[in-house]
């Protein structure tokens, strides 16, 4: 698909050209990558349902980590008491 952008400020266009050149990219490729990175944020957005699942998993992992830390502390205390 072809996208054309008109009426771009001259300074902005010049800066785009400089950045693209610095990255050893054509202006077209630089802008394509920029658009892909920007839109990737939206295509990977997490739904509310997914967020709650993530929260549940994190809460479970935190409880598990706390348990393991407590067990480790107990073992260390036993070793230092000997």
Task: Please describe what this structure looks like.
The protein has 82 residues and is mostly helical. The protein has helices at residues 10-22, 27-43, 48-81. Helix 1 (10-22) crosses helix 2 (27-43). The longest helix is centred in the last third of the chain and has 34 residues, at 48-81.
Strand percent estimate: under 5%
Mean pLDDT: 87
Please estimate the helix content: over 70%
| Uncertain stretches of 5 or more adjacent residues | none
Class of secondary structure makeup: mainly alpha
> Cα-atom Rg, whole angstroms?
26 Å
The strand count comes to: 0
- Specify the overall morphology: elongated
The helix/strand series, from N terminus to C terminus, equals: HHH
The biggest beta sheet, please?
none
End-to-end separation: 73 Å
Count the DSSP helices: 3
Brief sketch in words of this structure:
By secondary structure, the protein is mainly α. The protein has three helices and no strands.
Topology:
Layout: H1 10-22, H2 27-43, H3 48-81
Features:
single chain; 82 residues; mainly alpha; 3 helices; 78% helix; elongated
């Amino acid at each position: 698909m072809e996208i054309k952008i008109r009426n771009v400020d001259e300074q902005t266009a010049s800066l785009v050209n400089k950045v693209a050149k610095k990255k050893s990219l054509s202006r077209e490729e630089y802008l394509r990558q920029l658009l892909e990175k920007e839109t990737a944020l939206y295509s990977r957005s997490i739904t509310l349902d997914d967020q709650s699942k993530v929260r549940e998993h994190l809460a479970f992992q935190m409880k598990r980590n706390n348990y393991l830390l407590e067990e480790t502390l107990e073992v260390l205390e036993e070793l230092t008491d000997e």
